[in-house]
């Protein structure tokens, strides 16, 4: 059943005749009559009784009037919603970030993005790097800020800066950490606080360790390290000046290839996309380790 036929039917009802309806919908009288006939054939009922030149609704016709009005109203609402979503999607950014960025850096992005792109609708998701990259690849996210060793797999990648994780511990509890030379020594000598590994990922916590903690986020690692529970990997930008004074850092080299990247999805293209990426990179770099 075509919505156009229902619309013409209602015009006939409201105007009182086929000729009047024809003028309103800018069709010939025969064309309006054909549409009405086809609608009646589709429904298998007569909608009007012909009395001379006049038309009177049948019981079926009276029943159809409110149903037709509701259906046309819903169709118009759907059309506006779909068009609005299509127009709105141009102004949306579906951004994914790792926990460290959203916890400690994202505040540096909110105002610059709002000022540079006042129409921007930001849809933010947090997650682990592997999960975010999967969502970028499937075009479920436009961009993701991820920590990765080497360039991550994505349609387009922008390197922001080094992502320099280092082992920290409280000076008053783990002062010897400063002299540690490698990760094996740290794992054997100190209680570790680490992010819970995903399936298949290695752990630094040795079997039989007396004390250790597996945390769900770097924010939790930081809280446990500052609380004196153990030794954990943190990033310099996570720590205030006063917090650094309370901590000691191991001299263990970190992966020099690990960096914070912007990974772009296959549908994220165009000059505006590049401008948004440049804005993000510009306002994050001053808060990260220089290359």
Give the overall silhouette: elongated
- As a percent range, the share of strand residues is 15-25%
| CATH topological fold name of the largest domain | D-Maltodextrin-Binding Protein, domain 2
Rounded to the nearest angstrom, the distance between the terminal CA atoms is: 65 Å
Major beta sheet, strand line-up: 4-3-5-12-6
Order of helices and strands: HHHEEHEHHEHEEEHHEEHEHEEH
Tell me the structural class. alpha/beta
Describe the structure.
With 291 residues, this protein is an alpha/beta fold. It has three domains: 3-89, Orthogonal Bundle (Arc Repressor Mutant, subunit A); 91-163 and 257-287, 3-Layer(aba) Sandwich (D-Maltodextrin-Binding Protein, domain 2), CATH 3.40.190; 165-249, Periplasmic binding protein-like II (D-Maltodextrin-Binding Protein, domain 2, 3-Layer(aba) Sandwich), CATH 3.40.190.10. It has helices at 3-15, 18-25, 29-43, 59-90, 99-104, 107-116, 129-137, 171-174, 183-189, 218-226, 241-246, 271-284, and strands spanning 48-51, 54-57, 92-97, 121-126, 143-149, 156-162, 165-170, 192-195, 212-215, 231-235, 247-249, 258-264. It has a five-stranded mixed sheet with strand order 4-3-5-12-6, with helices on both faces. A five-stranded mixed sheet has the order 9-8-10-7-11. A two-stranded antiparallel ribbon has the order 1-2. Helix 2 (18-25) crosses helix 3 (29-43). The longest helix has 32 residues, at 59-90.
What attributes characterize this protein structure?
291 residues; alpha/beta; Arc Repressor Mutant, subunit A; D-Maltodextrin-Binding Protein, domain 2; 3 domains; 5-stranded mixed sheet; 12 helices
